[in-house]
């Protein structure tokens, strides 16, 4: 694997292989010494042009547990704030000998540009670009679902027959996009639920059903309900009347939670707006996988870095 830029072009076999390697990495997390020498001598740069807590720390922990040297780069306080271009930043990292670059950027397509421009000879991992994709988040979500369903026997399995409902701000969510493509590739049936104003203009090519009625979607007894954060920072106008109306119509409150099966997983990529898209009791319930997702994120990102940086990488 040369780069990990999206899930839309990720094959079923490659996705399952990555998830299986993540199982091996998860076993490392249970050891007293949570470290492997696999990437000793490699340098991983976390190149974050947007604020992040979970993703940045998760990638940093993953790289360090593989014994890589880690450089954390934040746009704030760097030459980027003085007007430095992505090209100049990339060439600086090339001069420093970066082997892998984990990039989060507000512009959709920035990781693709970095990977294909020739500015840097390093493996590139997309840690979220604009409203495009966030592939490692989708992979850790799939890993979490697979583990909840099959436990230690999950190796080699896909998600065939799993019914998933993704609810909320689909329009601005790169997590939703990556999950739609990956879950469908792995055999799951995906339903998107959102107000009409928070759906993309065209979803005809998406392998998912669309509905505006959350109660109807929950009545189908899905295996997975994934709630999305309302991304107010990306909204330039009024996409719904008010937060109370949104919570009443599209929030997973206590009453709706009581309707779902006891085996239904409740997921959220974080950070959560408790009381808006998800009730506090739901977020803290045994059916919630929020903490598992965070823990599994390290294993999945270890697997991604391992595939990109271990041994000699072939040319694209």
Automatic annotation (TrEMBL):
<feature type="binding site">
    <location>
        <position position="134"/>
    </location>
    <ligand>
        <name>carbamoyl phosphate</name>
    </ligand>
</feature>
<comment type="similarity">
    <text>Belongs to the aspartate/ornithine carbamoyltransferase superfamily. ATCase family.</text>
</comment>
<feature type="binding site">
    <location>
        <position position="271"/>
    </location>
    <ligand>
        <name>carbamoyl phosphate</name>
    </ligand>
</feature>
<dbReference type="Pfam" id="PF02729">
    <property type="entry name" value="OTCace_N"/>
</dbReference>
<dbReference type="InterPro" id="IPR002082">
    <property type="entry name" value="Asp_carbamoyltransf"/>
</dbReference>
<keyword id="KW-0808">Transferase</keyword>
<dbReference type="Pfam" id="PF00185">
    <property type="entry name" value="OTCace"/>
</dbReference>
<dbReference type="InterPro" id="IPR006131">
    <property type="entry name" value="Asp_carbamoyltransf_Asp/Orn-bd"/>
</dbReference>
<dbReference type="GO" id="GO:0044205">
    <property type="term" value="P:'de novo' UMP biosynthetic process"/>
</dbReference>
<feature type="binding site">
    <location>
        <position position="54"/>
    </location>
    <ligand>
        <name>carbamoyl phosphate</name>
    </ligand>
</feature>
<feature type="binding site">
    <location>
        <position position="229"/>
    </location>
    <ligand>
        <name>L-aspartate</name>
    </ligand>
</feature>
<dbReference type="GO" id="GO:0016597">
    <property type="term" value="F:amino acid binding"/>
</dbReference>
<comment type="function">
    <text>Catalyzes the condensation of carbamoyl phosphate and aspartate to form carbamoyl aspartate and inorganic phosphate, the committed step in the de novo pyrimidine nucleotide biosynthesis pathway.</text>
</comment>
<feature type="domain" description="Aspartate/ornithine carbamoyltransferase Asp/Orn-binding">
    <location>
        <begin position="161"/>
        <end position="308"/>
    </location>
</feature>
<protein>
    <recommendedName>
        <fullName>Aspartate carbamoyltransferase</fullName>
        <ecNumber>2.1.3.2</ecNumber>
    </recommendedName>
</protein>
<feature type="binding site">
    <location>
        <position position="82"/>
    </location>
    <ligand>
        <name>L-aspartate</name>
    </ligand>
</feature>
<dbReference type="GO" id="GO:0006520">
    <property type="term" value="P:amino acid metabolic process"/>
</dbReference>
<feature type="binding site">
    <location>
        <position position="270"/>
    </location>
    <ligand>
        <name>carbamoyl phosphate</name>
    </ligand>
</feature>
<comment type="subunit">
    <text>Heterododecamer (2C3:3R2) of six catalytic PyrB chains organized as two trimers (C3), and six regulatory PyrI chains organized as three dimers (R2).</text>
</comment>
<dbReference type="GO" id="GO:0004070">
    <property type="term" value="F:aspartate carbamoyltransferase activity"/>
</dbReference>
<dbReference type="GO" id="GO:0005829">
    <property type="term" value="C:cytosol"/>
</dbReference>
<dbReference type="InterPro" id="IPR006130">
    <property type="entry name" value="Asp/Orn_carbamoylTrfase"/>
</dbReference>
<feature type="domain" description="Aspartate/ornithine carbamoyltransferase carbamoyl-P binding">
    <location>
        <begin position="2"/>
        <end position="146"/>
    </location>
</feature>
<feature type="binding site">
    <location>
        <position position="137"/>
    </location>
    <ligand>
        <name>carbamoyl phosphate</name>
    </ligand>
</feature>
<feature type="binding site">
    <location>
        <position position="174"/>
    </location>
    <ligand>
        <name>L-aspartate</name>
    </ligand>
</feature>
<dbReference type="InterPro" id="IPR006132">
    <property type="entry name" value="Asp/Orn_carbamoyltranf_P-bd"/>
</dbReference>
<dbReference type="GO" id="GO:0006207">
    <property type="term" value="P:'de novo' pyrimidine nucleobase biosynthetic process"/>
</dbReference>
<keyword id="KW-0665">Pyrimidine biosynthesis</keyword>
<dbReference type="InterPro" id="IPR036901">
    <property type="entry name" value="Asp/Orn_carbamoylTrfase_sf"/>
</dbReference>
<feature type="binding site">
    <location>
        <position position="55"/>
    </location>
    <ligand>
        <name>carbamoyl phosphate</name>
    </ligand>
</feature>
<comment type="pathway">
    <text>Pyrimidine metabolism; UMP biosynthesis via de novo pathway; (S)-dihydroorotate from bicarbonate: step 2/3.</text>
</comment>
<feature type="binding site">
    <location>
        <position position="104"/>
    </location>
    <ligand>
        <name>carbamoyl phosphate</name>
    </ligand>
</feature>
